Amino acid sequence: MRGCIERFRHQRLLEAQTKEQEALLRVLCHDLCNSVGASLTALQTIATSTSEKERATWLDLGLTATRSALDLIGHVAEYRTLLDETRPFKIEPVDVARACEESLSVLRPAASAKGVQLLLDVPADLTLVANRVVLVHNVINNLVNNAIKFSRPGDRIWLAASRQPSPTGPECVLTVRDEGIGIPPAILAKLLRRQPVVSRPGTAREPGTGMGVTLVELYVRRCGGRVRIESSVASPGPPPTPSGTCVTLWFPADAPAPPASP
């Protein structure tokens, strides 16, 4: 009997480990898409370009995107601590303007190809506390990429940040707002309740995983922040309602104070 119980426990442990490994692989593949896609676009453009200046520009993008992919691959060990909330998660002061520019540099080709304008409004001296790789590649990349995916030619996307006071200390408020088609109420309600959603194609039939916003919420929470999602789908009125989505993120703006000496 004891042997049967031990075999059962071992089997359950193996099943749990397999599920965790599958989840880690899905998350990593999802987050690598932006960087690898930008690298591929850069290489294809360099191969066909006849302008030395254009090749230099795209070479710089390719290098940035490749470094981003390597950052994510090197970050694999952190994914386990991300999913297991009993384990400590590394956070550090992050330069917000630099993080936003690093993300947008990878996503601008996709936005430009779709005729979508990316606008950045972040002060140069703003710092927040998070995991840098998570903030750049898993949070900002996911949100801006989603905004591009559900925008139409001529639409605009704003990435902005500011420092604001709060009862628990200063916070950095980061927003990603777009003029896209918006999130249907039924899907938005599921997202707000952290329920799984079915992936829907973008305005140019771009494929999706349905994981992006759920992952962002998990990442931000593990960094000590919080998320609010607001969205509307266009309606003829009266009065007419414009469409678009705004995701607001709150992070601690300063590093936590060191413990007092005994």
Explain this structure to me?
- It is a single chain.
- The protein is an alpha+beta fold.
- The protein has a single domain (19-252), classed as Histidine kinase-like ATPase, C-terminal domain (Heat Shock Protein 90, 2-Layer Sandwich).
- It has seven helices and seven strands, in the order H-H-H-E-H-E-E-H-E-E-H-H-E-E.
- The protein has helices spanning 2-48, 52-74, 76-83, 96-114, 132-149, 185-192, 212-222; strands at residues 92-95, 117-121, 127-130, 156-164, 171-178, 226-232, 244-252.
- The strands form two sheets. Strands 2-4-5-7-6 form a five-stranded mixed beta sheet. A two-stranded antiparallel ribbon has the order 1-3.
- Strand 4 (156-164) and strand 5 (171-178) form a beta hairpin.
- Helix 1 runs antiparallel to helix 2 (52-74).
- The model has no long low-confidence stretch (mean pLDDT 82).
Q: Please name the CATH architecture.
A: 2-Layer Sandwich
Please state the structural category. alpha+beta
What distance lies between the first and last C-alpha atoms, to the nearest angstrom? 53 Å
Assign an overall shape.
Answer: globular
> H/E series, N to C?
HHHEHEEHEEHHEE
What fraction of the residues are assigned to beta strands by DSSP?
A: 15-25%
Helix content: 40-55%
Main CATH class: Alpha Beta
- Widest sheet, order of strands: 2-4-5-7-6
What does the main sheet amount to? 5 strands, mixed
Instruction: Let me know the CATH homologous superfamily.
Output: Histidine kinase-like ATPase, C-terminal domain
Q: What is the number of beta strands?
A: 7
Rg over CA atoms, rounded to whole Å, is 20 Å
Helix count from the secondary structure assignment: 7
Point out poorly predicted stretches: none
